[in-house]
């Protein structure tokens, strides 16, 4: 892994990041109803004591209690401070060892110090593997896969699939595909001698007699120039035969007799004193074939079609590109509790994954052919899985061992092979990868939305990348600006923003929360035990960072 400096300097991104960070941590504002701050939204807490008790009760039930508790402490701390912008930034940090939750109450046992289960002092630490759904109930001796190995298994699964035939795709549909054939120049570029500047095409040394009619881009071939002649010319226009140079408009001036003289650029000012204007042979002429000749290989196969590749292909004469087709993906959203519109309430919640996954999967190279909402209906899931012709089925929810978690039973019923059944990663540990049949895989994403993101980047990304023929991104690391909590035994993926040359951990990173990830630039890969300020951690870019 290599260090890499951050994209977007602090100056350019400063405001965006400040705003994003301010939105991501509103803990102070929540506790100060009615206190508006100019220039930024006020987040009002609609709380009451009862709600606080409920919240505390819920937190007691939550598996990620350590994280919740940490946030409470941050919360209290925030009360004691005035919230100016810098402080808002400080609030998005995970605190250092002294200030955080139960893990750090033991001196010397900060988040960077992995602790043995026997050393737990509060019972807040996540239980070891034997309490995971995959290792209890249905799969008594099941051992979850380590995070790097889960990713490797997804890459291997992609390699086991017979690739679909490349196809000729119109340029407008080729963005994000991978070239299946070299991009070979169909023409010289430029395909004719062309002016690089607005000015005059001249022949021989000046002064020059200027022709009446100028030459514009895209017109028929101009007449040849005689020695001592000049003609006005536009950038991109054809150079007349026998022209020797182009004099930029700011480098020429007309005398009283209508002749053109080369002059020093006015921008030189006093520095130009004593210098003679010169016109070099070929100056500001782009000769035919300067960039490439017909038949030159411009790009090898395997290159991702970016907007720049589309531009190059068009310039080089292409109307279609020979590319690998996107793998077809079907998304099956499970859960009876999901609403597709309106306000959540009465035990029902809005489906966050239906809107989130298709564009995300597309950014990862997929062609999302269908999104089906199946409720918690085992038969509907069975039908959907057995009738799907997609290369990848992505399910959401139903991966755990609850009464209506149908994914495992259906996989068993259809005789699928479980390649990954649970991953040692938080959030998202019940995620799974199965081979349904030859050339068809199923990625089971947990229902908790951030857990689903974790599954997306752990299993779906390597699988789709391989199927789409995309290259693996170069892994990179950045130092953390602040300490970040880890899971005691498992890898943890935590949303961060990249600010200057540091990754800044964001709050609201619980498995059911999307606030952190929605403001994030990347997910930091935190080793078991967490990471200290300044510690280099691997970052997984989020696809939209490319488009920023
Ligand atoms: N006894 C245990 N229970 C659970 C464990 C465990 O180890 N033992 N693991 C927990 C973890 S961690 C996760 S993650 C979830 C995974 O659960 P499922 O994949 O079975 O998902 P559901 O139970 O269907 O839903 C979980 C949660 O997410 C909400 N959800 C579901 N779909 C959506 C959606 N499209 N948009 C927004 N939110 C969604 C759902 O309402 C639940 O609140 O299991 C834990 N349980
Ligand atoms: O910790 Mo789960 O894996 O909520 O996401």
UniProtKB/TrEMBL annotation:
Its cofactor is Mg(2+). Gene3D superfamilies: MoaB/Mog-like domain, MoeA, C-terminal, domain IV, Molybdopterin biosynthesis moea protein, domain 2, Molybdopterin biosynthesis moea protein, domain 3. Keywords: Magnesium, Metal-binding, Molybdenum, Molybdenum cofactor biosynthesis, Transferase. Pfam families: MoCF_biosynth (PF00994), MoeA_C (PF03454), MoeA_N (PF03453). Residues 27-38, 47-86, 113-129, 142-164 have a biased composition (Basic and acidic residues). SUPFAM superfamilies: MoeA N-terminal region -like, Molybdenum cofactor biosynthesis proteins. Catalyzes the insertion of molybdate into adenylated molybdopterin with the concomitant release of AMP. This is Molybdopterin molybdenumtransferase. It comes from Streptomyces glomeratus.
């Amino acid at each position: 892994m290599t260090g890499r400096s951050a994209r977007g300097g602090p100056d350019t991104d400063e405001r965006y990041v400040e705003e994003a960070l301010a939105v991501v941590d509103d803990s102070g504002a929540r506790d100060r109803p009615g206190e508006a701050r100019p220039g930024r939204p006020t987040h009002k807490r609609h709380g009451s004591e009862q709600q606080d008790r409920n919240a505390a009760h819920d937190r007691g039930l939550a598996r990620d209690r350590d994280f919740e508790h940490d946030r409470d402490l941050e919360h209290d701390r925030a009360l004691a401070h005035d919230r100016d912008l810098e402080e808002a930034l400080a609030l998005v940090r995970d605190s250092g060892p002294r200030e955080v939750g139960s893990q750090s109450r033991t001196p010397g046992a900060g988040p960077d110090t992995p602790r043995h289960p026997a050393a737990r002092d509060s019972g807040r630490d996540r239980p070891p593997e034997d309490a995971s759904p995959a290792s209890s109930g249905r799969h008594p001796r099941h051992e979850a896969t380590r995070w790097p190995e889960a990713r490797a298994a997804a890459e291997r699964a992609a390699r086991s699939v017979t690739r679909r035939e490349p196809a000729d795709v119109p340029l407008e549909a080729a963005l994000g595909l991978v070239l299946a054939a070299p991009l070979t120049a169909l023409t010289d570029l430029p395909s004719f001698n062309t002016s690089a500047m607005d000015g005059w095409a001249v022949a021989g040394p000046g002064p020059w007699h200027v022709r009446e009619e100028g030459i514009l881009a895209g017109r028929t071939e101009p007449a040849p120039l005689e020695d001592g002649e000049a003609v006005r010319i536009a950038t991109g226009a054809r150079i007349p035969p026998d022209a020797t140079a182009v004099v930029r408009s700011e480098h020429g001036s007309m005398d009283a007799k209508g002749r053109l003289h080369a002059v020093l650029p006015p921008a030189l000012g006093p520095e130009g004193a004593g210098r003679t204007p010169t016109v070099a042979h070929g100056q500001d002429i782009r000769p035919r074939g300067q960039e490439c000749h017909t038949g030159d290989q411009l790009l090898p196969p395997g290159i991702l079609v970016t907007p720049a590749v589309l531009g190059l292909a068009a310039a080089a004469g292409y109307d279609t590109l020979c590319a690998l087709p996107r793998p077809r993906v079907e998304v099956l959203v499970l859960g009876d509790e999901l609403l597709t519109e309106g306000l959540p309430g009465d035990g029902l919640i809005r489906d966050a994954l239906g809107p989130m996954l298709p564009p995300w999967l597309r950014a990862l190279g997929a062609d999302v052919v269908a999104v089906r909402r199946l409720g918690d209906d085992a038969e509907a899931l069975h039908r959907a899985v057995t009738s799907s012709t997609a290369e990848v089925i992505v399910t959401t929810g139903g991966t755990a061992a609850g009464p209506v978690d149908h994914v495992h039973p259906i996989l068993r019923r259809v005789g699928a092979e479980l390649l990954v059944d649970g991953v040692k990663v938080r959030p998202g540990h019940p995620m799974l990868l199965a081979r349904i049949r030859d050339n068809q895989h199923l990625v089971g994403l947990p229902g908790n939305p951030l857990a689903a993101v974790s599954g997306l980047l752990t299993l779906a990304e390597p699988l789709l990348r391989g199927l789409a023929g995309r290259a693996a991104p170069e892994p990179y690391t950045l130092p953390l600006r602040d300490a970040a909590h880890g899971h005691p035994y498992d890898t943890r993926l935590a949303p961060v923003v990249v600010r200057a040359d540091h990754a800044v951990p964001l709050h609201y990173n619980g498995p059911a929360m999307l606030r952190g990830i929605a403001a994030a630039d990347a997910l930091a890969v935190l080793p078991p035990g967490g990471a200290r300020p300044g510690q280099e951690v691997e970052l997984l870019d989020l696809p939209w960072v490319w488009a920023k």
